[in-house]
Amino acid sequence: MTNDVRSKSMDPACQEMLRACEKSGLETAWDRLEKQQPQCGFGELGICCRNCNMGPCRIDPFGEGASRGVCGATADIIVARNLLRSIAAGAAAHSDHGRDVAHAFQLIVEGKAPSYCIKDPEKLDRLMKEYGLDSPALLAAAIMNEFGKQDGPIQFTRRVPPQRLELWKKLGIDPRGVDREIVECMHRTHIGVDNDYVNLILHGLRTSISDGWGGSMIATELQDVIFGTPKPLFSEANMGVIKPDQVNLIVHGHEPLLSEMIVAAASDPDMIELARNEGAKGINLAGICCTANELLMRQGVPMAGNFLSQELIMATGAVEAMVVDVQCIMPALGPLASCFHTKFISTSPKAKFPGATHMEFHEDTAGETAKEIVRTAIKNFRNRDPSRVQIPDIKTRCMAGFSVEAIVSALGGSLDPLIEAIKSGSIRGIGAVVGCNNPKITQDFGHIGMVRELIKNNVLVLTTGCNAQACAKAGLLQPEAAEKAGDGLKGVCQALGVPPVLHMGSCVDISRILVAAAALANALGVDISDLPAAGAAPEWMSEKAVSIGAYVVSSGVFTVLGTVPPVMGSKAVAELLTSGAKDVVGACFAVEPDPVKAASLMIEHIDSQRRKLGLA
Ligand code: CUV
Ligand code: SF4
């Protein structure tokens, strides 16, 4: 059985909890994945279609049965349409998050969201200048307007190097507002509309760009304005951050609009007093998934774990409340919470769950709701059954907070020292490693295997999302991890006192990586596709990751995927994504589940880019 647990997760805390769950008969994602075996082959290949009621249709991958759906759609069409719908859903998730932040920003500016304030007025000024506007109210209106912009362009796309913008325009993929692009995805994939796989995929790229350089970037920028631009700080990661003698409040999901208010409420002296009266030593807050990343980056709140840790964290029996908003929250948490005293609290009108208590969150009453939630957690402390508590005593120190602004200031005010280090070869290139956990891959194994290999080979790693949390748990976000890097990278990190893996935030903060890439390319006078850089999502699972992959490649960055996307049922589409795209957008995808081999692909690419730039 021990072996079995090791094949599920490489995180020792998760392994301990997996054993505990097995013992007490609690079901987890890994058990459910097993019960799904064998998974549908048509689905895996992307060749089933339910887009109209003449179907569902499926294409025989062996070429013996049906080669067309009832309407005549081929595997190429079906695969491309399915891919487009995934991009639409992923872009929608990120950008709806961005919209919520923009809406909150507008309310703050209008004085209608009294619980919030503007923590980074300098960034606000920079954004106003970028938009050519002279008041926060006008900026708020202009940004709200970006989402539904009918004719484009969206302002932040103008941050790309001129070559890239020309290319996008030439290809017709310089996007309009993300809402329009997403609607068009749904229209084009309706029966009998767009049936040209290249045309479909080009629109997918356009949609993804409106996410990466639009909705997601708006989320990041305005979150910085409201909650502050991250600066380097230290914290801790893994389940050992859960405290046996305190009220443990776990925030999970994505939008800091909610979680920042909970941070404030949990540090309110009245609340702490209340917790003491209930017999607890204090209130302990920790995060899961991107909410954890957001709170770590700006507040130093510890991270309890990443995506696949969520059930295991609840299974410690020490969680008074798990508070969630949107995205990556398993509906399995409802039934699991009922096995413990844990209150599972949903907060978004967009996301309700069976077994959850719904405490709806609105910007104008945010502070009050947050206090109510914290109070609920505190009152639940007495219901904890100490005999059922098991907290793995495992946690790791980590450094985070590397916004582009923080990186520039760590470098002494400009990107020049980084460019010099890249030119001299002490830093071979940049690897952006991001994305989820997926129980099809041993938890964190894809992330850690790849990142270790990259830094060993002097590739500076930029990280976000669940990869960042995997790295944090494995100790790779400590300055001391420089020891594990090649000599060149080690020297740079030690001189600056930073880790070889820089935590840049949540999934929407991949926009920070885009901004950094654009700034580097602009400084060198080249396109992003000329940089010695590569991206990867070793354990991706969500549709958001599909949109991310698409906008990263559209921006010119070669990207390796660790789990196979459902496109293999069409040779033409798979070929376009893994090679043809290179001639179109100057970058393509590769699929490589072995993390070390995948890292080699990235390093090979970085080396060939260096040669093209005339660097040794
Ligand atoms: Ni948004 S999208 S599992 S929490 S990175 Fe983590 Fe990050 Fe994937 Fe979800
Ligand atoms: Fe079948 Fe075509 Fe309808 Fe899809 S759109 S379900 S392939 S008939």
TrEMBL record:
<comment type="function">
    <text>CODH oxidizes carbon monoxide coupled, via CooF, to the reduction of a hydrogen cation by a hydrogenase (possibly CooH).</text>
</comment>
<feature type="binding site">
    <location>
        <position position="254"/>
    </location>
    <ligand>
        <name>[Ni-4Fe-4S] cluster</name>
    </ligand>
</feature>
<keyword id="KW-0408">Iron</keyword>
<feature type="binding site">
    <location>
        <position position="290"/>
    </location>
    <ligand>
        <name>[Ni-4Fe-4S] cluster</name>
    </ligand>
</feature>
<feature type="binding site">
    <location>
        <position position="436"/>
    </location>
    <ligand>
        <name>[Ni-4Fe-4S] cluster</name>
    </ligand>
</feature>
<dbReference type="GO" id="GO:0016151">
    <property type="term" value="F:nickel cation binding"/>
</dbReference>
<dbReference type="InterPro" id="IPR011254">
    <property type="entry name" value="Prismane-like_sf"/>
</dbReference>
<dbReference type="GO" id="GO:0051539">
    <property type="term" value="F:4 iron, 4 sulfur cluster binding"/>
</dbReference>
<feature type="binding site">
    <location>
        <position position="57"/>
    </location>
    <ligand>
        <name>[4Fe-4S] cluster 2</name>
    </ligand>
</feature>
<dbReference type="GO" id="GO:0042542">
    <property type="term" value="P:response to hydrogen peroxide"/>
</dbReference>
<protein>
    <recommendedName>
        <fullName>anaerobic carbon-monoxide dehydrogenase</fullName>
        <ecNumber>1.2.7.4</ecNumber>
    </recommendedName>
</protein>
<dbReference type="InterPro" id="IPR010047">
    <property type="entry name" value="CODH"/>
</dbReference>
<dbReference type="InterPro" id="IPR004137">
    <property type="entry name" value="HCP/CODH"/>
</dbReference>
<feature type="binding site">
    <location>
        <position position="52"/>
    </location>
    <ligand>
        <name>[4Fe-4S] cluster 2</name>
    </ligand>
</feature>
<dbReference type="InterPro" id="IPR016101">
    <property type="entry name" value="CO_DH_a-bundle"/>
</dbReference>
<feature type="binding site">
    <location>
        <position position="328"/>
    </location>
    <ligand>
        <name>[Ni-4Fe-4S] cluster</name>
    </ligand>
</feature>
<dbReference type="GO" id="GO:0043885">
    <property type="term" value="F:anaerobic carbon-monoxide dehydrogenase activity"/>
</dbReference>
<feature type="binding site">
    <location>
        <position position="71"/>
    </location>
    <ligand>
        <name>[4Fe-4S] cluster 2</name>
    </ligand>
</feature>
<feature type="binding site">
    <location>
        <position position="466"/>
    </location>
    <ligand>
        <name>[Ni-4Fe-4S] cluster</name>
    </ligand>
</feature>
<keyword id="KW-0411">Iron-sulfur</keyword>
<keyword id="KW-0533">Nickel</keyword>
<dbReference type="GO" id="GO:0006091">
    <property type="term" value="P:generation of precursor metabolites and energy"/>
</dbReference>
<feature type="binding site">
    <location>
        <position position="40"/>
    </location>
    <ligand>
        <name>[4Fe-4S] cluster 1</name>
    </ligand>
</feature>
<feature type="binding site">
    <location>
        <position position="49"/>
    </location>
    <ligand>
        <name>[4Fe-4S] cluster 2</name>
    </ligand>
</feature>
<keyword id="KW-0479">Metal-binding</keyword>
<feature type="binding site">
    <location>
        <position position="507"/>
    </location>
    <ligand>
        <name>[Ni-4Fe-4S] cluster</name>
    </ligand>
</feature>
<comment type="similarity">
    <text>Belongs to the Ni-containing carbon monoxide dehydrogenase family.</text>
</comment>
<dbReference type="GO" id="GO:0004601">
    <property type="term" value="F:peroxidase activity"/>
</dbReference>
<comment type="subunit">
    <text>Homodimer.</text>
</comment>
<dbReference type="GO" id="GO:0050418">
    <property type="term" value="F:hydroxylamine reductase activity"/>
</dbReference>
<dbReference type="Pfam" id="PF03063">
    <property type="entry name" value="Prismane"/>
</dbReference>
<feature type="binding site">
    <location>
        <position position="48"/>
    </location>
    <ligand>
        <name>[4Fe-4S] cluster 1</name>
    </ligand>
</feature>
<dbReference type="InterPro" id="IPR016099">
    <property type="entry name" value="Prismane-like_a/b-sand"/>
</dbReference>
<keyword id="KW-0004">4Fe-4S</keyword>
<keyword id="KW-0560">Oxidoreductase</keyword>
